[in-house]
Amino acid sequence: MFKLLSKESNIFSVPVYIGVLLGLIFLRNISSAAFSVDLPLVFALGGLTLGYFCINSIRLNYQTHVPLFLYTVFSLVFFSMDMDIGLSVALMTNSLLVLMLSSPEDMNVKKNYVIVGSLLVFNYIFLPATWAMILFVIIHVFATSERIVLHIFRLFFGMVLMGIFYFSLAYFFGANTWDERYLPMPSSPFLAENFSLVYLSPIAILLLWAIADHFLHYNEKSPVSRYKYTFLLLFLVVQVATILMYMENSKSYLLLLVMPMSIIFARFLRFRKRYWEKEVGLGVIMLTLLVYFTIEKVMAIY
Hints:
This protein has about 300 residues and is mainly α. The protein has one domain. Helices cover about 70% and strands about 0% of the residues. It contains 14 helices and no strands. Helix 3 runs parallel beside helix 13. The protein is globular. The two termini are about 35 Å apart. The mean pLDDT is about 85. InterPro entries: DUF6427. Pfam families: DUF6427 (PF19992). Keywords: Membrane, Transmembrane, Transmembrane helix.
């Protein structure tokens, strides 16, 4: 199976994967009483769709089908129709931020920091638990910019503009009281609400192995690959922190990890020296997801 997925993708691959993902999501949920095409669903599917373009934008996987396939499978397993508007918006804005910050045209990134700042505040308004994304972008600015003060100013200027717009709109509609949810506190212990996630431990172990393997062969990587992988890894750490602190029992938060995990796994499997290791690694991921998905469905029934 890995050999088939290792073939080079083309211009039609992403639209096909998007069509398959959206089609399977609709087929799986169309008979559900909770199914309805509403704003959270539109934002969520929009964010997942943009994730495919993020994979190609980061350019760490030699344009193969492996990351696109993994992204599709992860998304199908973790997607849930009871997703709230906050998480849906976070999926959309995270994808937009990654697309903008990983742009191959450096000048475009520098010009977009005002928009990036606005998106960060927009993201925070709908899901305050995503405050760590602000730290992610600030670290990115310090690590990549030559004119740090100017770009930090642009970033915060965009944040202030969106903040003024939001508070003006809230005041116009009579929302004059402070909501304590804008200062999110960590929820109950992670596994206390999500014991079924233990069944995903093989994927977690494989992910740690993939990251460790990257650093073991760090000196063999090109400077561009090092930078892009570090960018991706920092993004992953921010999403993991958000999940550990605020997921509670909403397992759809795992969708925040789908894009970086797909790229990391695809790259890890590609550089395995023995072909059987690639097949076994892919098989472990697929089998683990199947077991987790089955257990989730059984628990939902009983």
